[in-house]
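Cross-check.
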Amino acid sequence: MEFKPIEWIYQVVQWLLGILLSPNAPPPHAVLSRPRIAIIGAGLTGVAAASHCVGHGFDVCIFEAGDENALGGIWSKVNNTSGLQIHSIMYRFHPSVKWSRGYPDRQQIVSQITQLWKRYGLQERTKFNTKVTSVFQDKQSRWIINDPSHGRFDGVIPAIGSCGDPKMPHIDGQEQFKGEIYHSSRLDGKTAEGKKVLIIGGGASAVEGLEFVIHTNAASTSVLARSDKWIIPRNAVVDILLAFNIFGQETIFSWIPESLLRLFFYRDLKDLAPTSGGLFTGTPMVNSDVFRQIRDGKASWLRGDIIRMTENGVLFNHRAKGVPKGGPGREEEVKGDMVIMATGYHRPSLSFLPDDVFQDPYQPPAWYLQVFPPAHVSISAINCTYANAIGTVGSWHIGIYTRLLLVFLVDPLARPQEYWMKKWIDMTRFLKRRSPVGAFDFFTYSELIYWFVFCIAINPFRWKWALFVFFGIGSALPLSVVKEEDRLRNGLGMGKKLS
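Predicted model, tokenized:
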């Protein structure tokens, strides 16, 4: 077997991270302490957050609407040909995760989630086939999930993600089409070998379709996209550099990465680069294969509007670059044998949360650090409030958000008050007032890290928790300090109340 030094170093680094930063798994049937956390959703985020909680000695209960086959969230639903578009070094959702290669497929991702779930004994703390319909507080301000039969909780982590059921819109004339029609997530067991494939949609779901047609050797592929979308290479260095925009918005320097992408990545395909809408306004499409397929003559990218479907394909209004959606263009029939609807997913609803978390102007994603509603600091909606971003998914922030929630629950002096949570939201809106999109409608990973650092630095009572929040290290000493602080506060007649 050929020795690959870079892969070997990556494995060693993952092993060291697991040794140094993974919290210890509790023994079987361990009785864990309060605060007790309710976690809604058994996807990647829910399982990772739960493992951090129990690893630090706090009890959890995971509520999952589906059966055990739903473990893994969206990754349990997509095709086997689907895989990571960003490098796995940016997808380390827990310190103990060990990737065997740079771009793992769906099966390895689900395997890592399942192993983590079992490693931390979460089987006995997961309730499958339990859809959460309401979350409310009792008179002692403890949380009840659906009804009191599930017990009471000190904190809640909604971890329902941003992708729910597939969107499958009806297109005029669809019944006339003689070929096959599938959603981009429902392609297992199908083949496009020798077929002309039409992919309707140009976002992340189009990547699923492209992976499928490449894997099954389609004769040709046409991507029919309503709007131009930034496409960035499947390259860890490039993706990390783009995430270094700490301002989390378009700046006077945004033309530099945009020009470099046009020059070195788009090259002869610059016509496909957006003319309006900067790179730092929406989530880009991460894919290197689409341009390779176009240059090889195996694929085409068409900008325009779907008029209707025909017996042999799609009647399409092909627009020139810069012409807005619905504008004038050249009408043509794009022929195909198979249509893949890359139309995305319905966003799961947070409507089970209390009404007061949706009060204007502090509705999601305009919450404290984007996940804590000002009305209830004991709720942390991790990875289900964001709209668009550039950066990693679950590499670090799941653990940070989870540990921040634990800190807020156990340390009254570190807990933010509703007034100051709203002031932080207002400040962020002011700082990003020139952004072409809303202040919380787009962010970068470096901006997210800045939020975390600001959160710890602004309150001296949080300083003792810094190593714990950022790295999961040393909760015993801060907790002993909290006990002394509580003793002093109680001696002064100061109570502690959790909103």
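DSSP finds twelve helices and 18 strands in the chain. The mean pLDDT is 92. Passed to J.P. for a second look.
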